[in-house]
Amino acid sequence: MFASDLEGLTMLAESLGADLVITPQCPVANDDPSGVADAWSTASTSALDSWRARAASGASASSVIVAVWPNEHAALPLAEMSSGEFARRLEWPFAAWYAALGAASSRCADGGAIVAVIERPPPLDAAGWATESGLADAVEAMVRSLARSEGHRGVRVNAVTTPTRVAPSDPIAPLPSLSTFPGRLDGEVSDAVTMLIGPGISGITGTVVHADCGRSWR
Amino acid sequence: MTPPVILITGASGGVGRGIAHACGTSGWTVWIAARRRLEGEQVASEVTAAGGEGHFVICDASDADDVERAVQEVVATSGRLDGVVLNATSGSSPKPVVFIDVAMADVEDHVAVSLRGMHHLVRSTHEHLRATQGSMVVLTSEAGFEGKAKLSVYAAIKAAQRGIVRSLAREWGPEGIRINCVAPLASTPAMERAFEMDPAMAARVLGRNPLGRMGDPATDVGPIVRFLLSSDARYLTGNTLMADGGSCPIS
User: Fold this and answer.
1) Which chain A residues are closer than 8 Å to B108 by Cβ?
2) Distance CA A218, CA A209 (A)
3) Which of A43, B64, B118, B234 is the most buried (most CB within 10 A)?
4) Complex prediction ipTM
């Protein structure tokens, strides 16, 4: 599993029994209001390229899980967001997801499965989470692109979404279908990933499963 | 009723030019924001010739100061801003690359124009759109729904824009500002370059199009964007209209 160095994702790896490979840390400091130069410096992009090359060269695996999540943020209207925060929440994670999914495609054996675990605010709860919504949709498109390019060797690529860190404490009505909303990484999310890498779904690729207890309909 | 004042980024050619023409024929004041002065001024002249009021302002969509200056010039000259069209996109968009071979430095140009540029435009126009109860339209793509094996960065960028729009519709709705997307399929210089780089692409694109032709930027796509910017669409926000002849299998 390629994942950010976050406690919840470590728990997810443990619940899946996956070997964990930590993805690079965002180079933009939390208190930097500009930050764009740090996110896209030659050193930063070269580091991502180098990490991808190293991560891609390991032993192949029948299934690879990817979860590149930024550090936790608070909801914030996009018009009030600094360039630095935008770079931390969307620009750099976009590139890091690209590197990690690229490495995953190299490590995944023919006939294997790749699953992206995406943080996604449900549409009803999306206000204040424009960068997270944008990143989630971007990764869903990456998953579909990879499903297309890797399908010829039997590799399936799918995604699981979860709002565990971005769910509101007081959701807009109607309430989520299941009282367990927003779910847990080592519970509902782990179950959905297990399903997607397991047997019996050989024809499923390029799909997105919302493990959010019935909060998203598509 | 006073004709709307709108700003279109990346409008020196292609779909942006078509949108400018469509709005010009309705007598709107249309600001062409682009890096290419000669071509941009030409489009502004075409808008005026079509019955509107065309203006040009030089603008690099990826530069925050440039975007802010352009928006200030529009408001200082025309008095207000009713609509904004985010159309600028990276020149790398039609360049085919295999997923694993994409260099991170090349990703930045896409991000700078289409995502950072969107953030700049949102910040610079928010107050003006609130003052007019205005509207923003973002040009996305069917690629953002489906993904593309060889245009995966472009597909992801266009998907990201839709996700941002989904959130902004909820942030801006209570303030009376609407925001929507249009996913066009049209004959443009960028599309022609994509066909040149991938000769099989033309057959793929047209082969699944039930209307059997590429759209025209001015007569097929432009009127749809004009509708979204107009008061006729005052109850429509957070949506994506597919202006693609039924090409994308999303319904």
Assistant:
1) 40, 45, 95
2) 9
3) B118
4) 0.96
